[in-house]
Amino acid sequence: MAEAKAPQRPLSPFMLGPYYRPQITSVTSIITRITGNALIVAAVLIVWWLLAAATSQSYFNVANFVITSWIGQLVMFLSLWAVWYHFLAGLRHLWWDSGRGLEIEMATKLGWGVIIGSVVLTILTAIVI
Amino acid sequence: MQYLTDRKRATGLGAAHTGTHHHWSMQVSAVALVILVPLFIFTFGHILGHSYAEVTAYYARPFPAIVAGLTVITALHHLKMGAQMMIEDYWHGVTRKALIIAVTCITYAAMATGILALVRLALSHGA
Asked: Chain A contacts of B9, Cβ < 8 Å?
C-alpha cells in the first residue's frame, strides 16, 4: 500500500438488491455464477457413479439407483440445463472478452439468446438422449 | 510527495489483489470445455441408465473414456477457479482462505477419483 491509511474510495453497489432494477444483463450474469457453482453437485455425483462402476456390480447398483431415482433424475435434468446455460453464457463471455458485442442493445439480445438457447438445447438434448 | 504512480497504486486493489493469469486460465479451460462438454453430454447421457455390463464395456472403449477423462480434469479445474472467484467476491479473511482451501481439496479429490475410476474401467475390461 502506498499510504498507511486506506484511502476513501467510492464503492459501487452490488447489482442485486435495492440499488438497481433487475436487468437482463445483471440477471443473466448472476445466473451464470449460480449455474457454474451449482454444477459441483452433478460433478460429484457423476464421479461417484464412475467410481461405483469401477468398483463392483453391487456398488454400481447403489450409485445407479441414486442417480436414476426421481430426485437423481431431477438433479441431472436441472444440471443439464445449468451446463447448457453456463456453456452459452461462457461463449457470450468469450465474445465480450474480445471487445465485441458490448453495446447495450447487443448485450440485451445476447442475454435473451442465452436464456432461450439454454432451454432449447436442454429440450433437444433430453429428446436425443 | 507521491513516490508511486497512480497505476502502481491501483494495481492489485481488486477483490483478489491479482487475477490476469487466473482470467487467462479460465479462458483457456472455457474454450476447451466448448468442445468437451457437448461430447461428454452425449457420451455420458447415452450410457446413463444402462446396465452394469453395458456401462463397464462402454467406458472400456477409448473414445468415451478419453472424453470423460479430459472433461473431469478440465471441468473440475475450471470449477475450482470459478468457485475461488466467487469466494473472493463475497468472503474475506480467514473464512475466504478456508473456503478456497476446501474447494481446492474437493475439486482435486473429485478429479483423482474420476481418473482412478476411468483407469480401472479401461484396464479391467475382459479381466
From this structure: 2
